[in-house]
Structure formats: structure tokens, C-alpha cells
Amino acid sequence: MHDNKDASVKLDDPTTEEASSYMPYDLLPPSDNWVANSTRRLSRIELQKAITKVKRFVESRLETDLNLFEHTAPIAFKSGTGVNDELDGSESKSPVRFKVPNQFVPRGITPKPLSELSPEEQEEAKRYAMDCEVMQSLAKWKRIMLDRLKVDVGEGIYCSSTSIRKGYKGDVTHSVIADQWDYEIRIKEEDRNVETLKSYVNMIWKIIHDAETYILQEYPSIILDDHPSATCELVIVLV
């Protein structure tokens, strides 16, 4: 039998040449979870499992409490359609853009620049190429989908979306990566009022409160002595 001991590589060991060829060590997530607050009491594996449990809990409640169904979220839009969100409209907050050549290129071969193509190939490249941009927000898209799917009044969709927002400076409330749930519900014209808004806010808050209660029961060791538990009652202040 062939002894293959030397073939095994620990990817978390920065001294191995093969490990560093996958990704620079300083870009890999730490092996220990010391960057969080109360969740530092969980290992990185336990933390990922806990995140999954919270997501499944919240998504289940979105479906039952708000009468939503999940829809796959797009990751990019064709430029110029107006579906993507420009956020504050400034150039710094503009979406990440890229071009889809829509050409057949054999694997391992770099596409030729447009100037090196024949006139026929240039015409084909211009006809089928698409300018695209990474999704920043699903606000407009969700409303389009409610109409396209012929969703009934009182029913809606939710999406688990990940977007890139290159114009943000990272802090405790902002990130260049936005990982979030988006939802949209069809309501009657006469229900577009503050009371309806309050009712949905309270339902969402109840889900968040119950998710906290659930995960603390699953992982009681993460709670700290000064942990501020979310109150079940929410005070809504309109300004």
C-alpha cells in the first residue's frame, strides 16, 4: 500500500506552501471565534450552525405569520432597465458593473479583443453582449414580481439576498456586503396607512423576539450577565 502521509495538508497552517496557494492566510477566517461579542462562547462551527438555525426559524415564521413564500433573488440586472436601486444616486454608490460577452469561447482560451475580431464577429459581439450590474437592492424588482406572479392581496414574497455596495465604509451598521431578507406584500389601496404599517412592524418584531428566545434556548451558554434581552412590546415613534 502506498503511504500518502505527505499528501495531506492542513489548510489552517500558514507555514505550508500548498495551503498558502489556496488563499493568503490573512484572508482566511480565523479558526477561533473571538471577534464576536456574546457568541465568542461558540466555536466557528457552532456559530455557523446557530446562524443557519436562526435563518430557518425566521424564514418559517415569515411564511406562516406574514403569508409569504420564498423566491430566488437575482444577483445582477441588465444595465439601463431601471430595476436596480441607485441608493442615494451618487456615483460613489453606483453599482458594480461588468460586461457579459455572450460569446462561445473554448475553455482555457482568452477571448480576443473586439478590435481583433472580423467585421462579422464584431457585429455578433455587439449584438449579443450585455452590460450588467450587480444587484444593490430588490425594492423595485419585488414590486415587479408581485405583478408578474399575480400574487393575491394579503400574499407576498421574501428573498434571502446578498448584494455588493462598494460605496459604503464599513462600520457597525454598514458593510460593502449586504446579506439580508427582503419581502413585499400586496395590500389593498385603502390599507396603505400608518395602522397597517404598524401591524407589519409589530409582526416582524415579534418574529425577531421569538428568534432570540429560540436561539438562547438552543445555546444558553452565549448569554452574558448584562445581556439586554429584546422586549416583546415595541414602541413605534412616528416623526
Q: What oligomeric assembly is this protein in?
A: single chain
Q: Provide the low-confidence segments as ranges.
A: 1-11
Strand content: 5-15%
The level of helicity is 25-40%
Strand sequence of the main sheet, in spatial order? 1-5-6
**SSE topology string:** HHEEEHEHEEH
Amino-to-carboxy terminus distance: 75 Å
Mean pLDDT: 80
- CA gyration radius, whole angstroms: 24 Å
Overall structural class, as computed from helix and strand content, comes to alpha+beta
Largest sheet: 3 strands, mixed
Structure annotation, total helices: 5
Q: So what's the overall shape?
A: globular
User: What is the number of strand segments?
Assistant: 6
Task: Please describe the topology of this protein.
Blueprint: H1 17-22, H2 44-65, E1 68-70, E2 76-78, E3 97-100, H3 119-128, E4 130-134, H4 139-148, E5 156-164, E6 177-185, H5 194-218
Parallel strand pairs: 1-5
Antiparallel strand pairs: 2-4, 3-4, 5-6
Helix pairs in contact: 2-5
